[in-house]
Amino acid sequence: MNNFSEAMDWLLSHRNHGIKPGLERIEAVLERLGHPERAINSVHIGGTNGKGSTVTYVRQIMQQAGYNVGTFTSPYVVQFEERISINGSPISEEEFTAAASSVREALERVNHPYGPATEFEILTLIAMVHFANAKELDLVIFEVGLGGRLDSTNVIDPLVTAITNVGQDHMHILGNTIEEIAFEKAGIIKGNAPIVTTVANDEALSVILRVAKQKKASVSIVHDDVSLQIDQLDEEGSTFTVKTEQSTYSALTIRMRGAHQVENAVLAIRIVEELTSHDDYLVEANAIRKGLELAFWPGRLELVRSNPQVLLDGAHNPEGIERLSSYLQTSVQGRKLHFIAAMTVEKDVQQMLEPLLALHPESITFTSFDHVRAMDPHAIIEQVPFKARAEVNSHKAVQHVLREADDQDVIVVVGSLFLISEVRAFF
């Protein structure tokens, strides 16, 4: 491969191989590559919602403490290369091409019966090669792509593991019950790494505790181990005080909106505290304060316009929708609501929309996005028992709602992060 365009074409040519849970292919290629994942100090973060935000909080805190931090996240919102970043700066085209060339050569030399690699497996390999080759890199935070147990990222040996929550998402792959999904999420637990979690569901938590006991991993349940007092919660973010066994952090501030972001921030604090049990890391309270305040993750209750307000939120499962609904109940304050929504084909439309319908929106527009799994908005219209509009083109959908909304109204674009990425580009 001679350039970034060729590298991307090669990577995307594997998209039609779909999702193939399993570690055999990636482990075979990593062996051929000389196990770059073993050269990385890492944190592994899984869960249904809040993974990306928690990654961002931890990264910013560790950066403020003076460390160089890599992140592997998915999907992207601004540009594809952001999925592999160091200190928030995406991998360069030259670096991506070089790492992809190494991975391609290794793939071609591996003779195994597991079939062709998937796009996500290859991207994970590219990230590991890039991070292993990076100079003066102190830590890499890996976000689980899907599930955990059989996710491509689950070849690392992390210093700390975290699970944000367990909800009903990707059930066509992960299982039909909370317990089954929790088992897949708990697959990232390692015996030599503490597990920190904000999981509150009793059924899911019992599975996590059982797996942790089997693997002899220490467990920190944040809701039990931390005292939290929310001092202020509004449209500009939150102020709160946290007391852990190690310290008390008073009047912390975050800019990301919603009570759920406070929970993600507290989880990040506990992850960092577990990291500091290793001699390689020293993080002062001021770094935690500054890191939380600086943290920003696009497409998570992100305000992109005023008069009318336009919020972008990548809520794409029932738990995410519930959190969005909870935020809007307290922040909209009698203003008219307009929803622009799009989702993937496996979603239960009625279940997804119920919390939003309870807010009595002024209008609902269903749209689409550029992905093979995007649901046809006209098909959604046929499923719902209420008045709604269908517009396949997401930019046209936004333009239409902007024309009809008053300045004091609130427009919420919600659903797949692929949709959020498209609409964010519009603004």
Short descriptors:
16 helices; 427 residues; 8-stranded mixed β-sheet; alpha/beta; UDP-N-acetylmuramoyl-L-alanine:D-glutamate ligase; 2 domains; 6-stranded mixed β-sheet; 17 strands; Protein-Tyrosine Phosphatase, Chain A; 41% helix
Explain what this protein looks like in three dimensions:
By secondary structure, the protein is an alpha/beta fold. It folds into two domains: 4-294, Mur-like, catalytic domain (UDP-N-acetylmuramoyl-L-alanine:D-glutamate ligase, 3-Layer(aba) Sandwich), CATH 3.40.1190; 302-426, Alpha-Beta Complex (Protein-Tyrosine Phosphatase, Chain A). The chain contains 16 helices and 17 strands. The protein has helices at residues 4-12, 24-33, 51-64, 93-109, 119-133, 171-174, 178-185, 202-215, 222-225, 259-275, 285-294, 318-331, 349-357, 377-383, 394-404, 417-426; strands spanning 42-46, 69-72, 84-86, 89-90, 139-143, 160-163, 195-197, 219-221, 227-234, 237-243, 248-254, 302-305, 309-313, 337-342, 363-366, 389-390, 410-415. The strands form three sheets. It has an eight-stranded mixed sheet, sandwiched between helices. The protein has a six-stranded mixed sheet with strand order 12-13-17-14-15-16, sandwiched between helices. Strands 9-10-11 form a three-stranded antiparallel sheet. A hairpin with a 2-residue loop joins strand 3 (84-86) and strand 4. The longest helix is centred in the N-terminal third of the chain and has 17 residues, at 93-109. It is globular.
